[in-house]
Specification:
This protein has helices at about 15-30, 40, 65-75, 80-90, 105-115, 160-165, 165-175, 195-210, and strands at about 1-5, 35-40, 95-100, 140-145, 180, 185. The protein is α/β, with parallel strands linked by helices. Strands 1, 2, 3, 4, 5 and 6 form a 6-stranded parallel beta sheet that branches.
């Protein structure tokens, strides 16, 4: 299996980085091929803009998704996007590894999705959810956060984590056709003991070892909707 870990933490000595390194070692020990795309180390540009398309199909008005299609068709993607897209297309498992910022992804990781999830390659037209162009690949979120575990859940102060992360779980990964695995959350990381951190890394090792049986998040099937996306009755 080809594993792509897209890592988005600015501190090389962070616990989030230790998670990435631990997953890399664990997968490689199992015989898998692991590639790490460290976005901060690469100084990846997260800003989707007209500068991504020096040769435009419509120079007068920017429709980003249409220019993505034009650039890909004409082999005119910027080098950084082309490199990341090749890694994405090659992988069987995509892992997004990051610290939770304001109930969401760090901007550099959101920008990676904006620029690399190309229209016509990752999704497009009616190619979404169970017909998404990434169908057959798996995706997994692994992340750190400062809150305690009891702060997240149906009746908790911050509500359910999967609901919080719906824009990426459903709006990006599920929409693109990935088989989305239940996320792994490392709670309260800045405040716990070294022993607790070691235990948490052991839990992540176990999660890697049992990935094949990890719960999946379900999304709609387009078979249940008519061509205008009205639900069939």
């Amino acid at each position: 299996m080809n594993v792509l870990i897209v890592h988005a933490h600015p501190e090389p000595q962070s616990f989030c980085t230790a998670m990435m390194q631990g997953m890399q070692r664990r997968f490689e020990a199992q015989g898998h091929v692991v590639t790490v795309s460290d976005l901060y180390a690469k100084q990846f540009n997260p800003v989707a803009s007209a500068a991504d398309f020096p040769e435009r199909s419509n120079p007068d008005y920017l429709v980003y998704a249409l220019e993505q299609r034009h650039a890909q068709k004409n082999n005119a993607l910027p080098d950084d996007i082309a490199e990341e897209l090749a890694l994405l297309q090659k992988c069987d498992l995509l892992i997004l590894n990051f610290p939770l910022y304001w109930f969401s992804l760090p901007a550099i990781l959101k920008g990676w999705i904006d620029r690399v999830f190309l229209s016509g390659v990752v999704y497009g037209g009616r190619n979404f959810y169970d017909r998404g162009l990434m169908k057959g690949k798996q995706a997994w979120l692994t992340f750190t956060l400062g809150g305690r575990e009891h702060m997240f859940g149906d009746n908790a102060v911050h509500a359910d984590l999967n609901t919080m992360l719906r824009p990426v779980l459903r709006g990006s990964l599920g929409y693109a056709g990935f088989d989305v695995l239940e996320p792994f959350a490392a709670y309260h990381v800045p405040y716990i003991s070294q022993e607790a951190r070691v235990e948490m890394l052991d839990q992540l090792d176990t999660a890697v070892d049992t990935l094949n049986t990890r719960a999946r998040i379900t999304y709609p099937s387009l078979d249940d909707f008519d061509p205008q996306m009205n639900p069939l009755k």
